[in-house]
Amino acid sequence: MxxxxxxxxxxxxxxxKYGFSYPEQSTAKTPKGLNHAIVAQIAEHKNxxxxxREFRHAALDTxxxxxxxxxxNQEILQSINFDDIHYYIKPTDEQGRSWAEVPQxxxxxxEKLGIPEAERKFLAGVSAQYDSEVVYHSMKKKLxxxxxxxxxxxxxxxxxxxxxxxxxxxxxxxxxxxxAALNSAVWSGGSFVYVPPNTEVTVPLQAYFRINSxxxxxxxxxxxxxxxxxKVHYIEGCTAPIYATDSLHSAVVELIAMKGATIRYTTxxxxxxxxxxxxxxxxxxxxxxxxxWVDGNLGSKLTMKYPCVYLVGERAHGEVLSVALAGNGQHQxxxxxxxxxxxNTTSRIISKSISTGKGRASYRGLVKAxxxxxxxxxxxxxxxxxxxETSRSDTYPTMEIDERQVQVEHEARVSKxxxxxxxYLQSRGIGLEQAKLMVVNGFIEPFxxxxxxxxxxxxxxxxxxxxxxxxx
Amino acid sequence: MASSxxxxxxxxPLPPRERVIQLARITGDHLPLVQKRLxxxxxxxxxxxxxxxxxxxxxxxxxxxxxxxxxxxxQPGPELGTINRTPGIDDVFLVPGMRPVIVSxxxxxxxxxxxxxLNESDEGIERLGRAVPAQHGLFEALNASIWxxxxxxxxxxxxxxxxxxxxxxxxxLPTTGTRVVINLEPGAALKVIEVHDSGGAGISVLSxxxxxxxxxxxxSHLLIQTWDKGTAGHVTSRAVVEADGRLNxxxxxxxxxxxxxxxxxxxxxxxxISHITGMGLCHGRQAMDHHTFHDHRHPHTESELEFKVALTxxxxxxxxxxxxxxxxxxxxxxxxxxxxxxxxxxxxxxTIPELEILTNDVRCSHGATSGPLDPEQLFYLKSRGIxxxxxxxxxxRGFFENAIIRVPRQLRxxxxxxxxxxxxxxxxx
Lengths: 472, 429
Prior knowledge:
The complex is a heterodimer of chains A (472) and B (429).
Chain A: H1 3-18, E1 28-29, H2 36-45, H3 50-65, H4 74-77, E2 89-90, H5 104-113, H6 117-122, E3 125-130, E4 133-139, H7 141-146, E5 149-152, H8 153-159, H9 161-167, H10 178-186, E6 191-195, E7 205-210, E8 221-226, E9 231-239, E10 247-249, E11 252-257, E12 262-270, E13 275-285, E14 290-297, E15 302-305, E16 308-311, E17 317-326, E18 331-340, E19 346-355, E20 360-369, E21 376-386, E22 392-401, E23 406-416, H11 419-427, H12 432-448, H13 453-467
Helix pairs in contact in A: 2-3, 3-10, 8-9, 11-12, 12-13
Chain B: H1 2-7, H2 17-26, H3 31-46, H4 62-65, E1 89-94, E2 101-103, H5 107-110, E3 113-117, H6 122-127, H7 138-146, E4 149-155, E5 164-171, E6 175-184, E7 189-198, E8 204-213, E9 218-225, E10 232-241, E11 246-253, E12 258-267, E13 273-282, E14 287-296, E15 302-311, E16 316-325, E17 333-342, E18 348-357, E19 363-371, H8 375-383, H9 388-404, H10 412-425
Parallel strand pairs in B: 1-5, 4-6, 5-7, 6-8, 7-9, 8-10, 9-11, 10-12, 11-13, 12-14, 13-15, 14-16, 15-17, 16-18, 17-19
Antiparallel strand pairs in B: 1-2, 3-4
Helix pairs in contact in B: 2-3, 3-7, 8-9
């Protein structure tokens, strides 16, 4: 097949798949802007318990008092008009209990999103988020038998108020940053997961997120608690249709890995290129716990996301594996944070970025070793690939070391596509564009192989799309 | 002026404009220099205090480094005592409020090098602020308005003086403001050492050094800071390297209580090269904050940077280093390495090596490490009958070897004994 044709058919498929939107059918929507009345209205809609209402109002005060961060992409950050955003949209009144009960138009949206048939069969549970509310939620019997809780955050709050109250906002308090405060004030949707002690969830839990209303913000909130000795893999994927004006997405994700627990959190972010994706993700890893963030950033106009692990128990391990793809006009400002607060904790960060056209990929990270955290080891590796003359790559790592008995290593490399590799492939009869794609795919391979197969396939397709036009 | 002065609400020292004019009158400045001072004063008033949120100032408080009374007009102190000449070395002493004291053999001029008090050199005044403008930052703006002793060095085209030039900044007044301009004409070469010496509690140093490395010229520049205990200060050094020019810079930071240095090179022509090697040794409660900057603006430029810090006691070190490869600097290569050696459990280091790459056809990488002495190496030395203390001192000296070998031969024994002195003050010898 001609490669150009291959690309253009992919492009069509993509438009068909993601570049659409059905007319809004929201039955409840708060007016634009943000104040205590709006927050009260959101809480009223959800008929929330008192402590959460107080939590929201306090968070709103924090949000209003905090300045916009002074670092990062100032041009975009300073241009956010918080008064021009709907903070809550509820698509349907009833929460679908089974696939059959989900309203037809929303189903069609998911159809186009292409949740594969095979995937549906194997899915342990799907928490599909349409606008701000979980509309569809199914859970396999096995999970129920195991005692695993996998609910929308709103349901989680209703059904497990004590468990939620105990942990909600403990990893990321609303005072953490302006956008975490915003989310805490207006959050809606997201997932609540609790895995009981010594339980292994063998299939990944998955949730789909989707923005489908013009100028609306999406503020989902996810809390995952893995009790002692348990194991869980959660997958979050995002796609959004294309709109003319900017949308704000500001999620908060909190993970708690108790003694000996393992959590892997996989994200493929593919917001349309008008979305501002300003996300706070953080985990706490107790003794012997393992937390892994697998983070792919492909879409959005600006993403600021630095998944973090607080290693608070001895021998805890944290890992971040991330890929950022910055196409024309995109700024992927991503990275990772590892806080070593206990002895013999270990961490590893591997970050790969690709900038094409006028894209800009920035790695921004922090490694901190507190005093007393003896025997820590941490290794950070950043690789950046620049495809075009106009592409840009930045590396802003920070290492704060307050303890002697630690081993800290950081390395970063920036390079273009290697001419000799391209030449070799071309000498084997492979076209230039195909050769470039092969080199790029090889570059991100360590990331792709950590993904479930269907995600890996989708990622490779998206990279191919992004690379299109990079061929002179 | 009053209006702009009242606008500021931060606790920085505010100057009466007349004082700057008075200072200029005492030092006998020509009108263009007086104008530069007043422009810099305006820049100082317009520049906000550095933002502590931003990483360059996260680890140092600008108010600790700023002199308390920078606008007191310095009174000329007593003459310097007898100065011993060191063979093979030309000396310049910069004493705030005084004309620079130049101890030079006649051969200096024969070899194409001219040394002139900065405020008496038209070329020096013309170049002043071209590499480090007042807009560079608050400290640079303040320095440009109140410096009270400066020197201009010029090396003529294709000349390379055999003698080493040593410029000693003596921190003798509560506000020590000094300024250096070095110009190498095309094809020239020079070895120069700037020593920041003396000082004490209550003394603040504000110093700026600008170096212009012409086409195909080569400058070796060593910046040694050996302040006495209690000294605080901010030193800025920038080289502008033209096509085929080369800068070999090294930094040795040993003394003082609070020290912030901003060192860098602009690679301003094709094939310009800059190599910077640095070392810092901090003990007690010393705080050092180093920033390096390699700015690639033209194709085929090359930079290399190696920076090492060893810490004992409760010392703190921050290092931020930026490599920027601009859109027009294709085929450039840059490397940066930073190593921290932690010798006590209460020492703290912060390391931020940064890259900003704006074009694709480049090769750029950096590495950073922090950790203790290698226990295996220590064990090996001890197994050879070397005491623990001596073994540690040996390993620390080995750690700094790359920086020390950059010191010109004539001065190496001197520098080595200074480093030994600081090692023993840090309990490492």
